[in-house]
Design a protein that fits this description.
By secondary structure, this protein is mainly beta. Helix content is 7%, strand content 46%. The strands form two sheets. The protein has a five-stranded antiparallel β-sheet, with no helix packed on it. It has a three-stranded antiparallel β-sheet with strand order 2-1-3, with no helix packed on it. It is globular, with a radius of gyration of 16 Å. It starts with a helix and ends in a 5-residue tail after the last strand.
């Protein structure tokens, strides 16, 4: 069970981007200043939806790293577990990244899985 303290940190378990209320662009990772219109204070936190689609991908050290686009046009790079092709629809999943040492801390985070595969 995850301690309550960690569950309340929205950036830990959700994919949160920035949305510029001035020019309407989305940015992930979050920004303090909009790169397009240069407005500070116009950016608001926006939790991205759980589903997206793969625009392109590459294999790095045996892991599939994909550029994922969400419905609103926001994009992010993330690892995809399972077989993927360009255009594959994917869903956010909380997965293990790795661990520190043999008896160390296990790290978890957001990865994506193709829709229809085991969650």
């Amino acid at each position: 069970m995850v301690p309550r303290f960690w569950r309340k940190i929205k950036y830990r378990y959700d994919v949160v981007a920035s949305y510029c209320e001035n020019c309407g662009n989305y940015y992930y990772p979050q920004r303090e200043i909009c790169p397009k219109c240069r407005r500070k204070g116009a950016l608001k936190d926006l939790k991205l939806c759980d589903d997206g689609r793969v625009l392109t991908y590459t294999i790095v050290n045996g892991k599939c790293i994909a550029l994922i686009e969400f419905e609103n046009g926001a994009r992010m790079l993330a690892e995809v577990c399972g077989k993927v092709e360009i255009g594959t629809k994917v869903r956010k999943a909380f997965r293990r990244y790795g661990e520190e040492g043999e008896d160390g801390i296990i790290y978890y985070g957001t990865k994506f899985v193709p829709l229809g595969e085991g969650m």
